[in-house]
Design goal:
This protein has 84 residues and is an all-alpha fold. The protein has four helices and no strands. It is elongated, with a radius of gyration of 20 Å.
Length: 84
Amino acid sequence: MCRNSHYIVLKNNLERTGALNKIRSSMRAEIYRTLDDETLERPPVTGQQLIINEMIREYFEFIGYKHALSVFMQGTNPSNFILP
């Protein structure tokens, strides 16, 4: 058996038992916890990032993506936007 076939057998077994989904869920949750950690020091926002954030916000508003805009705004410090 080659290495690739071992990988396929292992992956299929993990999927069949539900372990792979559990690992993925756990990893996603940990990533979100890390991203939401207020104690982490964030680098300062540059002028370019302010402009990009504002463009994304305006785009979501323009096409009516209210839910996407809501999520985007929650994930971004409101002071990282240029106010109209």
